[in-house]
Amino acid sequence: MSLEWRARSRSLAWSNPLAWWWGLLALVSSANIAAWFLLYGYLEGARSILGGASDTELMLFLSAAYVFGCAFRSFLPRADVQRICLFDTWLSSVTVGRSVATVAEICFAAQWAIILYQLGTMTGADTTLTAAWLIVPLILVAECFSWLAVLTKNYLGNAIENSIWAVSFFIVAVGLCRLLPEFALPVDVVLVIAIIGIAGYLVFLATIDVPMYLARWRSKNFDKSSDRVGLLSPLEGLRDASVRWVVTHDIAEWKDEIAWMSLYFSAAVWASLALCVCYSFTGHLSRYRTEATPATWSASASPVVGEPHPVVGAPSR
Predict the structure, then answer these.
(1) 84 sits in which H/E element
(2) Per-residue pLDDT tens digits for 220-229
(3) pTM for this one?
(4) Distance CA 270, CA 256 (A)
(5) pLDDT level of residue 42 (50, 70, 90 thresholds)
(6) How far is Cα 154 from Cα 148, in angstroms, rounded to an integer?
(7) Are strands 84-85 and 246-247 parallel, antiparallel or unpaired?
(8) How many CB atoms lie within 10 A of CB 8?
(9) Which phi and psi (to 5°) does residue 307 adopt?
């Protein structure tokens, strides 16, 4: 590893564009951490007013896993399949970074599932409830393909993983669209903003992210000028990912990672924080329903799907 490091490493000086990119990632992640602590203090101080303290704390915990996990990956960037990183430390190991990412992404999916479940239960929207039940299992499958890609160094796993993320958030968007007729201003505006954000994410996946991984897979597997020596078995890959990381400050090797990492470690983290804020107000959403609803529903309630619901609304779809 040390010989490889010497061969490919260059100083991460400020004259290197990667240094500015990394500095921006670190700055944004530090601000995200500060925002999480401010949000935690605010929601803890206001829990007697907001209600549902234990549920709000769960959302904050899930958000913390995502915020701090993304910050860790921002401070120590790496590209898993290529085994490249910016800093020579065991924390840049692919197994460490991928494990952190797996936990963080499952927690992020769980945040969406909880929000959709609460809103679906409140409105009696079966479409939204179905989305709530689907997203975490789908993301678990996506994580399996991510690990398969990392261990075998086969980019097809990355393409499938991100395709599953696209399907998952298309389902989330459908669940949110189902809620639009149920709420008036300003809740419907928040829903529209979330749907537009998801639409932008889906466009990015469909036009940039997934095609990039498919192109890499085709190049590695079907280009006659290439070879498949780099492909590993899962067990070989586990050892390789644990002990080998290549420090490189060559922007040519990072250029395809910059776009998705920049968006992922900023906008996606802001979405996680926003979900905490939105969830803290779910106990007050009945006043913004487009139909008559009881004023006593709260986020701390744990309704069971299938039981009679006190909200009078349109028939579930």
Answers:
(1) strand 84-85
(2) 776 555 545 5
(3) 0.84
(4) 23
(5) confident
(6) 8
(7) parallel
(8) 14
(9) -80, 155
